[in-house]
Design goal:
Number of helices: 2
Largest sheet: 4 strands, antiparallel
CATH superfamily of the largest domain: Galactose-binding lectin
Number of domains: 2
Helix content: 25-40%
CATH topology of the largest domain: Jelly Rolls
Number of strands: 14
Structural class: alpha+beta
CATH class of the largest domain: Mainly Beta
Amino acid sequence: MINLKFRRALFACAMVVGLAGVSATSAQAVVVNAFTNSSSGGAGVSTGVLLTVGQIFTVDVNPNDLWNAGALPRWSNADGLKVKLFATGADESLQPLGTLIGDIFPLWTQDGLTTAYGTLVGKIGAGNFFAIGTHFSGPANATGELKFYYWDSNNWDNTQFVTATISAVPEPSTWAMMILGFAGIGFLAYRRRNQAVALRKA
């Protein structure tokens, strides 16, 4: 049977792996600007998040966080200009309560993606654009750094920004390496303790 000391070492390893997992899946917030990060006339914002094709990740944006594609009624959240939106009197548009600030517009097509103007979109490395909106959860379609864009045909009249929160699940290979590494440390500690006991008894 595995003695008590070794069981304690394995438990400690499991706790460390668990803490490492919490760190690896911690959320990261990124500000995406409608003017500087437009898909046309701007540049994507680097998130610093590196993904591998197939790796699961999520992105969330507060539905009440608004940005703007130009003159009224072109305000929307990260889902884009696909519903009628009315001012609350306290939103970023600064328009009086009840004013129509966002409306339904034709879709915009760029580099193979067709989606609503004002949608938050992503791109991973050299992969294709994909729609994110106020919520996305799924596998990465390419390997590389995740970047965010404001979906639009131009950027000269865009204003405001949204804040996107990213969470990425570690790859299975990463978990395996962590588990093997910490298990190895625990086993070495167990051997050293046994050797020390043997020396004392000799």
